[in-house]
Amino acid sequence: MEDYSGYFRQGDLIAKHLKGELTSQEKAELDDWVAQSDHNRALFEKLTEKGNLNNEFDQFATSGKEEAWERVANETGFTKSRRITYIGSRFARLVVAALVIIISGVFVYQLTFRSKPARQVAQQTDILPGGSKAILTLDDASQIVLDDATNGEIARQDDMVITKTADGQIMYDGSKSAETPPDGKSDLSYNTITTPRGGKFRVILPDGSKVWLNAASSLKYPTTFRGRERTVALNGEAYFEITHVTSGSSEAIPFRVRSAGQVVEVIGTHFNINSYSDESSIKTTLLEGKVKVIKTQPSVSKTVSEGSASAIILKPGEQSQLASGNRPRLNRIDHADLEEAVAWKNGQFQFKDTDLPTIMRQIARWYDVEVAFQGKLPDKKFRGKISRDVPLSQIFQILQLSGVNFKLDGRKITVKS
């Protein structure tokens, strides 16, 4: 996937140039970019001429969305017959690259020459994106902060050696573990890996299965898989690549993921589960293989919806959605957006007709911020991709173009129409 942070970087450098805040190193970087092509030089001259900036801002402020896209397409040399409708195609990415640079300059011009209190976010202390952070809780309740732990062996559980690797994940070495429990121990030992808001982490389970954990998530699993099943418990979101394992009789040992209201049963496959408690449904998206999604029995106080399936078998490209509430329903989506489902794992925010509250929930988890809403918000749907590696202010710059303003106070964001 394409990373737009480089385009934002040029916008930031042009912004600092306009405000006279470039360091000598940044000035050299900007000069080098300008010298790379006649197009870069022309764009730089256009963005740094006050009259042009004033005209750019007025046109973007008064144009409709389609008109704005048309104008940028024309300015970048693309014909009307190749109009874009979303940010997914290669042509769209090229136009967005130009638009981001233009908008960066226009936005900074607005801050510099037309400053308004509601648009001061980028001038405040910025909030950096999340990173590789997690806590490993061992069976005896002791905890290891994984982002602080040194590489190499970090613990042992039931003769399992737990190692933190140089590429930022933990793995379990079972070569020294016994098939029978040590010292007559019959109960399984469990570990839990927990990511905070603003964190993510990868773990290789004792059976070799790989799990990517998104922010504000946890996974509980035994330190050794024994018997005829492998079961883990998930809160939040995770992407799984399950290793096919057979018993002594060559019978496949199933792998089960328990989350709120459902169990996902697999043999060997790739899938994503989004089970955040503040979302309207639990989404299980299958990329490879085959899974069975089973709706667990609700509590006595709840009634199962009539006509709602109790189990669904998914094929690649399909998604199940288990709606929350007192009458949960398990439904199948035949043609799921796989890229959107796993965008977080690939370092992207990706939106497809996504409303603002849903976007802000994702932002809150990844940037570890509190979000509040003020006033009537625009009833708009958003499409596009944004790198998860950019500072929060750059997310704001894009969303503000749709008539949404943000006030940042410490780690609290107030969203205003």
Question: What is the topological layout?
Answer:
Elements: H1 5-19, H2 24-35, H3 38-48, H4 50-62, H5 65-75, H6 90-113, E1 131-132, E2 135-137, E3 143-145, E4 152-157, E5 160-164, E6 169-173, E7 190-195, E8 199-204, E9 210-213, E10 217-222, E11 230-241, E12 255-259, E13 262-266, E14 270-275, E15 281-288, E16 291-295, E17 311-314, E18 319-323, E19 330-333, H7 338-341, E20 348-355, H8 356-367, E21 370-374, E22 381-387, H9 392-400, E23 405-409, E24 412-416
Parallel strand pairs: 1-8, 6-8, 11-12, 21-24
Antiparallel strand pairs: 2-3, 2-7, 4-5, 5-6, 7-10, 8-9, 9-11, 10-11, 11-14, 12-13, 13-16, 14-15, 15-18, 16-17, 18-19, 20-22, 23-24
Helix pairs in contact: 1-2, 1-6, 4-6
Biggest β-sheet description: 19 strands, mixed
Mean pLDDT: 78
Low-confidence stretches: 1-5, 60-65, 75-101, 103-124, 299-308
**Relative strand content:** 25-35%
Number of strands: 24
Quick summary:
27% of the residues lie in helices and 31% in strands.
What does this structure look like?
This protein has 417 residues and is α+β, with helices and mostly antiparallel strands. Among the domains are: 5-115, no CATH class; 244-327, Jelly Rolls (Sandwich); 348-416, Phage tail protein beta-alpha-beta fold. The protein is built from nine helices and 24 strands. The strands form three sheets. The protein has a 19-stranded mixed β-sheet that branches. The protein has a three-stranded mixed β-sheet with strand order 21-24-23, covered by helices on one side. Helix 1 packs across helix 2 (24-35), helix 1 (5-19) packs parallel to helix 6 and helix 4 packs across helix 6 (90-113). The chain is globular, with a radius of gyration of 25 Å. The two termini are 31 Å apart. Residues 1-5, 60-65, 75-101, 103-124 and 299-308 have low confidence and may be disordered. This is DUF4974 domain-containing protein. Residues 349-415 form the Protein FecR C-terminal domain. Keywords: Membrane, Transmembrane, Transmembrane helix.
